[in-house]
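Subject: Sanity check before I submit

Could someone independently write out the structure tokens for this chain? I want to compare against mine line by line before I put it in a report. The sequence has 379 residues.
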Amino acid sequence: MIIQSKSVWVSGVFIEAQVEIKENKIENIYPYGTKPVDKDYGENRIIPGMIDVHCHGGLGFDTNDANREGLVKWAKGLLEEGITAFCPTTVTQSEEILSKALENVANVVRDGYEGSEIVGIHFEGPYLNVKNKGAQPEEFIVTPSVDQFKMYQEKANGLIKVMTLATEQDPDYALTKYASQHGVNVSIGHSAATYNEACIAVANGANGMTHVYNGMNGLHHREPSLVGAAMRLKDTYCEIIGDGNHVVWPAIYALVTSKGRDYCLLVDDALCAKGCEPGHYELGGNEIEIRENGSAYLAGTNTLAGGTMKFNKAIQNLVEKVLLPIDTAINMATLNPARYLGIDNRKGKICSGYDADLVVLDRNYDVVQVIAQGKTVKA
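---
Independent answer below. Compare away.
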């Protein structure tokens, strides 16, 4: 199959080009008009498939549900918004529930399925700080334990690639060091870490911050806190929720312009209610409500619990509302998460030899076509 467009994303610019796909890989890139094509997308933009490293669920399914059918349905639904790879994300709960959730993801990956590719698990909790727990159930928050985490990773068949950890709660940074030395990105989050504590955690292996601004103390001119560390520590990755509800546009601009184009990760922190109507749902045993603004809140409170934003529209938000350069916005959803997960040798770029994960967007950032692993999945 050969497709072409006058706006194909290559190394930070749009070029006129053809993309040849064989089986599940990008075989060649040719100048526009070189060969007969199966589809010409004209002025529509072709970008790499998007990657979401922090999403709990959607279409009525939550990762903690440990249900194969729900996970597969969700994975297929993610393709509709251009997410071709993702990390199912847990919520703090009992050891039994988390173990079953991890086993379910591992079994689905082992047995195979059709949909967005699971490229890891994001283990959010239970090793958090109750002071900044957000919607995470306090009764199941525990002290970080290397032995317990080893058990969880075994249940996951090694798929845990990101762990949100309140590193100031980690005795002697033992779990921080162990996880980071065994292929897991340690992301500081739901944390009351000071700026100095964050710096020491990074020196002991942490390399990211979870949904910056949310679940942490705010920036103050005499105590920068974790937000200040996110801005100042240039080689750490930072998640940011791009719906405008969790973080207002000027605050997103301040973070991303401080970090630069290579270390920010667009996430949606999506819940089971993504793709559903506003109403009441459950997260980690807590009742939540989806309001008209699209975000989830602990029922009866103004505590945010997650989002329902579509990734393609989040890129539009970053460009048109935050006023970020388009290369920064696209990187945040494609190349940066690929680098973070260590899969940038096959994902995150439109390049010969890479996975044939492509998204065609019109000028309003609506999804026109998705190609995942070489298969056309949305017409």
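---
OP: Matches mine. For the report I'm noting this point. The chain has a mean pLDDT of 95.
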